[in-house]
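Saturday, quiet lab. Running sequence design on the structure tokens for the scaffold JK sent over.
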């Protein structure tokens, strides 16, 4: 990834930060985007002390079109190009049944997970078209290929991410731009830890252990594993994978009924 310029949204923690570590360790130049300014600053400090690479940080809410335009402009201004976009920022919303779901939360999930990813594509792709090169990874979820009870807007938004990924691959393959999505299962990040708190407020660790026991690997995923997959998809080593939604879930999304 030497000298490759990669934008990561939702870079301050979780999957975004884990990918930033892998990419920085391989020499990529990073534009880190997040709306949590404090956490973003901490992330930059940790990365700068561990790896020798150039890092730009931009505070932005990906659901705000102007913020997205600004992080794209700031990246081009500093580095002169954009080789890869890790369109990762997203939220889960609240767990609730479909007909009782809080409408404000519903709209917020769609604004961030669907529109945020779309704005990223809208403003990054023209830069990549001029370069005749680009690699994009959008973050869907197992909830983008399966239903998940009590998470209707999340599931709707993540299916949309998978759909937009296919269209971007169709439309811009001729410009040297390969676009894929990933569908993580339960990877132990702050977002997933919060979900276990909602499932069992008295004992979130028990909810975590119960969830892990259903996975074929009997474990939750490690954010680093996702970072490695994303790094490959964003690299020149990926020469022909495009339009796919790749599950990274220990095989869980292939289960039907009980597995041994
Ligand atoms: P996380 O909550 O641990 O981290 C998300 C980061 O994104 C945070 O730093 C947060 O501040 C930032 N963010 C959220 N909304 C933003 C916005 N509007 N603008 C800018 N920054 C924003 O979450 P995570 O688990 O690392 O999840 C990252 C992505 O992976 C999400 O799209 C999520 O839906 C997806 N995902 C995660 C899992 C998992 O198991 N962790 C599984 C499937 C999909």
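Result came back. Writing it out in full:
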């Amino acid at each position: 990834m030497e000298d490759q310029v990669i934008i990561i949204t939702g870079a301050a923690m979780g999957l975004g930060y884990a990918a930033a570590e892998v990419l920085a360790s391989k020499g990529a130049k990073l534009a880190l985007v997040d709306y949590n300014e404090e956490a973003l600053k901490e992330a930059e400090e940790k990365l700068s002390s561990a790896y020798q690479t150039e890092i730009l940080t931009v505070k932005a809410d990906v659901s705000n079109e102007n913020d997205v335009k600004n992080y794209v402009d700031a990246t081009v201004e500093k580095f002169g190009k954009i080789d890869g976009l890790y369109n990762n920022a997203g939220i889960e919303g609240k767990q609730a049944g479909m007909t009782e779901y809080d409408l404000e939360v519903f709209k917020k999930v769609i604004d961030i997970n669907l529109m945020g990813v779309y704005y990223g594509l809208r403003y990054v792709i023209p830069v990549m078209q001029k370069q005749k090169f680009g690699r994009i990874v959008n973050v869907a979820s197992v909830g983008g290929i399966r239903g998940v009870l009590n998470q209707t807007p999340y599931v709707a938004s993540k299916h949309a991410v998978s759909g937009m990924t296919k269209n971007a691959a169709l439309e811009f393959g001729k410009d040297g731009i390969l676009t894929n999505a990933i569908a993580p299962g339960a990877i132990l990040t702050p977002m997933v830890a919060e979900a276990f708190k909602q499932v069992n407020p008295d004992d979130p660790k028990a909810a975590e252990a119960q969830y892990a026991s259903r996975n074929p690997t009997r474990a939750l995923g490690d954010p680093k594993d996702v970072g490695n997959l994303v790094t490959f998809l964003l690299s020149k080593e990926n020469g022909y994978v495009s339009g796919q939604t790749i599950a990274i879930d220990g095989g869980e999304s292939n289960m039907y009924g009980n597995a041994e």
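Notes for JK: The pocket of nicotinamide-adenine-dinucleotide is lined by residues 9-10, 12-16, 34-36, 39, 60-63, 88-91, 112, 116, 139, 141, 184, 186-187, 189-192 (CB under 6 Å). The chain has two domains: 5-185+222-248, 187-220. Ask whether to fix the surface positions before the next round.
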